[in-house]
Specification:
By secondary structure, the protein is of the alpha+beta class. It has one domain: Creatinase/methionine aminopeptidase superfamily (Creatine Amidinohydrolase), CATH 3.90.230.10. About 30% of the residues lie in helices and about 25% in strands. The chain contains 4 helices and 15 strands. The strands form 4 sheets. The chain has a 5-stranded antiparallel β-sheet with strand order 8-7-9-14-15.
């Protein structure tokens, strides 16, 4: 069931979203050669709790950290630990914060040092596909219009779209209805109406779309070992167009 949000609820979600965006910024600034993924996670945790909020992901479904930190061929759900970030690595950080009972959720892929041309192009296309999806998130459209906008933009540029993991509704729970795939036919799926809040999150691979999950039960990586990127915003569907709730400003 899709839970529509009132203007007051969206205002509260904007505060949670802003905090989530600032936490993501803290994580991105910590991405440097020589740091560990655990150190990045700690910086994110310390910031969120310093703001009187709680990390949305910590212990969610048993996940043991405040942020999912995934490196290079890792798509999502990377568990922070003693892995050291190297020059040129790309590091995807997915983080949410819960404030006053509502969640924000956002992600971005950062570069440690200088990116290769291959990596930078993947990041640019994935990020732009997120905004293509957001542009389609208008009242009267359908979820499939968002999905198709992301898929078309990426596939036309030679990248593949993961099918196994999708975006989602969000509010008092991190994951609510509806699902928001990054692939699909325009004009299909639930109708977008005023008050819907969703997380759009393209997960795009440089090679094959197929992925596998590590033995830890969490970390998802590309089957061919090629790079993967991940960008995400929480948005509200309104009569005046989509509003990005995970905006740090």
């Amino acid at each position: 069931m899709v839970i529509l949000k009132t203007a007051n609820t969206i205002k509260k979600m904007r505060e949670a979203g802003r905090l989530s965006a600032l936490a993501l910024k803290v994580g991105g600034e910590a991405v440097k050669p020589g740091v560990t993924t655990a150190e990045i996670d700690k910086a994110i945790y310390d910031f969120i709790v310093s703001q009187g909020a709680t990390p949305s992901f910590l212990n969610l479904y048993g996940f043991p950290a405040s942020a999912c930190i995934s490196v290079n061929d890792e798509l999502i759900h990377g568990i922070p630990g003693n892995r050291v970030i190297n020059e040129g690595d790309i590091v995807s950080i997915d983080v949410g914060a819960c404030l006053d009972g509502y969640h924000g959720d956002n992600a971005a892929t950062f570069v440690a040092g200088t990116a290769s041309e291959e990596a930078q192009k993947l990041l640019d296309v994935t990020k732009q596909s997120l905004f293509k999806g957001i542009e389609a998130a208008v009242v009267g459209n359908r979820i499939g219009d968002i999905s198709n906008a992301v898929q078309t933009y990426c596939e036309e540029r030679g990248y593949s779209v993961v099918r196994e993991f999708v975006g989602h509704g969000i509010g008092r729970d991190v994951h609510e209805d509806p699902e928001v795939p990054n692939f699909g036919a325009a004009g299909h799926g639930p109708r977008l109406v005023n008050g819907m809040c969703i997380a759009i999150e393209p997960m795009i691979n440089a090679g094959t779309r197929f992925v596998s999950t590590d033995s830890n039960g969490w970390t998802v990586r590309t089957k061919d070992g090629k790079l993967s990127a991940h960008f995400e915003h929480t948005i509200a569907i309104t009569d005046n167009g989509p509003i990005i709730l995970t905006d740090p400003d």
